[in-house]
């Protein structure tokens, strides 16, 4: 038998094995029994040792000795017959089906890592089976028996008689005419050799020698051999390896062949993947009927064009019923039964017996076979020489002259020429075959070349093609291959294929050519020949050859990976049609490695769908699910109907996978897709149970955008922490409660037991059909402090008992929407709220839900949408490759701590510029432990004031009492003092707020004077008791107001000399209601209630108030004097020097100081003025807004030099505070607003505006620059100051206003010529001057 597998054969070894000498074997019954004790036949017994262990020598007719290296003898039972059509096809299919190779190798081509099988045993097995089941042909003799071994038993008492009977039987086979199977190489003179088997463990060696001597005396010494085997008993353990396992051929099962004929070859037909070709009984019966009618019969055998006779062909080819196939004679010596193949082999043999078998093969070849071959070569050579030229008739000679000698020309009948066995042409071919089989390739090439010419001349194209094929192989084995010899093989294939119509011989020649061309590295030619051999006749053969062609494209220079992918897809298609699902599945997966990520969407879909269907049929449901999931990927170009079909099959596959493998648990969903970067986790959730009409603190929302102002919050937090700790920590780390892609978690987030955790994730539907998600829940795993693990995964996998499920449900409470619908190619955000009841480490795994197509809600799939841990690059990473894990989904749950609930009274969304709104802050401790300290920080302290805030005198006011240049003041401490307030101050040792205690703090909010959007940030800090929790030292509550400031009142003021005689000073004030009624959609009436003066030297003269330009003053709803929108008025109030010196020495309390410096006068008060004034803090109180206005708020980024220069200088000035009220009406709703406008005057005839007027502001800037220039040349250091940076920026065109800078700190020079003359002007003097 031919053996080409499980060995690392090169091309020449393969060709030697295919065309090795064929030796027939006939065994007696007793000899078979001896061999069967080893579960082997005599043919099988010799197979592992059929190759000669040493070189043999062969002499040609000229006497030249040729060394034969690696000669292998092919032993074959004479009763062996090639299997019939259906059985042969089954053997070929099974040879491919049973061959597997899980080992792979990685090949990188064009930047693509291709995972390829390390070997293709299925191709090798098919090739071996294909060559084995071929019928011997008439045009070649390599498959004819050269000699015969007659195997006898030494225990046979009639051994000579048995030998004679066996000899007669063999001679009958050899002498039958016409020749039938088996066919003999030289039937008239066949070498018959006799082998006597001696069973050493049972027989007597002396008797065996006597029988052997009788055989030798009868048949000759050189033809007789004695082999001693079975030295061991059957049940004795031997130490020799099983040499025979890989040579045993299993007998194919015939009980299912008939079913394969009548039924589909593959269940793929049922799911419409592809229809497999099948043989129809009606066609076969029609063929039989046609033969009976005398019509020409086309050979149906797929591997051989010939049979022993037409009658045998009919009887064998068309008898395909169960009984006929089951009853076909299959020699067990050739095709081992299944139970025999699995049993151990050689159990009665020892090492000496194995050596006897090996020695017999060598001895037989040297003593008997090679001398016979030398003799046969001489006979054939003599016959060729004697008959050369004699056998050519006149007709033959004329035909050679006048008939075109090209394949395909004229009549294309390969049987047009019939040669006798004694013809010179066949003798030449036989001579070439002998030379080839025994390694004399030079003479073999000459013989084949001569035969080629003769056959070509006779137009015997089948013989011609065979001679061309062997001539090309001889040249290759000789090592003299060139382009012409390769063309020989090409011509042979074309002739077999197109002229002779012999597909099987063309296939064999292509397989031989493939090995030759691969050795020459002509891979493109190999691929071309293999592709040419594909046809509709055999899907299996086409698949195997296409796969080999695909691999050839990978080793060409340069590699052609696209052609490889294309042809491996074609191979997969042919495998699928042949019913080879495993190989089809493998080929398509290999092809996908090239097609993936190439933006060839439709090609990817085709491959993945085929892979999914093949995997489904192979019960590889996980692979099928992955492929179906890929078909639902984003960016697919399939239409809605097709994607809906994909989704349906995906759900079906997943459900079947879960049903078949429940141990897999929850499987991941392919739809919808989780946008991993969108996962947000909020560990601080403000309690929402605030009684009306209180408004809870806004805190951090899970949808908050932290990219804009998070740095401001961090700075406020830092000031709060340092103020509360009374010293600056070495490293400040801001608190983080919201985790997203911009703010990942390098450490595990902290959450408090019993407090909710919010999570948001965006899900996107990538297909063109809507899907519905039901029974939505969050999947989590909780590791308790004692290392016990609780997880709701077991609840959905139904693995735990009811008690365990109850414990899981009690551990964490989750709330979310139960059902959502995702429209086609839409995205939606899911919000979850978890409330942990235990402590430990919480891992959030994903979202569990039941997914279904909206059109078919009954077909649903329970699965999980998994969260993936993201990798982040830390800000301190020195290397670009250094990454950390984002721990936002691994939350540390700590025991309960105090929780502060902060709420506010209602603040209107739209307020007037300068309006003061009273706000009550409600603080409630929701925890079970007290809160030690509570602090409030803000980014704009000028706009708020608290009732119980500290009463320290601001530095800007203190500098008016004494020189601060020598004081040791700390910039950061002063900045913190301005922006941080301590709430609920208690004596030492008392908590600020006990458990479940509630307290209200009064606060006032003043809108800025500039209209537009206004944002105010408040950050509450509360410290936790030290022994309560080691993880949390303090907690924070955020609140932000975003208000719309509407314009209200424009006020301009100027200090003038109002009387030239008494040198009396006055303040001119002009007002205008600038409220835009149309733009705001509201009506407003403004009332000027009072004017206050803050001055060290002057008071307001209550008796000298002059109302001027009062044409715009009209009667309103709240009083007799109001300003309607767009109306204005003015007044002048005279000043008088303070009558008495200050009633204090040194630094008085702030309230005392404010009371002494303040004077007040009513202007045009409204009816409700007195009531409104009670709602705002008085100006003389330390928490009044006058204190805020007189305070210079330092910018956080101010330098120490600028800070020191600012506190060392004091600029005398007066401040006017205009108290006003307004009635704002919107539809039927109206409210009364109350506010203050402040104006600072530094010099005579300097105009100050509130809000700032650009024209007045430029003049004021010039005045201030002038006074700075003047004071810089004087020796009065108290008047030296630096122009604040924000001020120059405000007037250089940028219009920037820093909320931490003081905008009105200094006196400004006056460019008015009148003030420089120091004249006292009154009204009469002005009139005289004008006259």
From TrEMBL:
The lineage of its organism: Eukaryota, Metazoa, Ecdysozoa, Arthropoda, Hexapoda. It comes from the Eukaryota. Residues 705-912 form the TPPC8 first Ig-like domain. PANTHER family: TRAFFICKING PROTEIN PARTICLE COMPLEX SUBUNIT 8, TRANSPORT PROTEIN TRAPP. This is Trafficking protein particle complex subunit 8 isoform X1. InterPro entries: Ig_TPPC8_1st (IPR058541), Ig_TPPC8_2nd (IPR058538), Ig_TPPC8_3rd (IPR058540), TRAPP_III_complex_Trs85 (IPR024420). Residues 1040-1240 form the TPPC8 third Ig-like domain. Pfam families: Ig_TPPC8_1st, Ig_TPPC8_2nd, Ig_TPPC8_3rd, TRAPPC-Trs85. One of its GO terms (cellular component) is TRAPPIII protein complex.
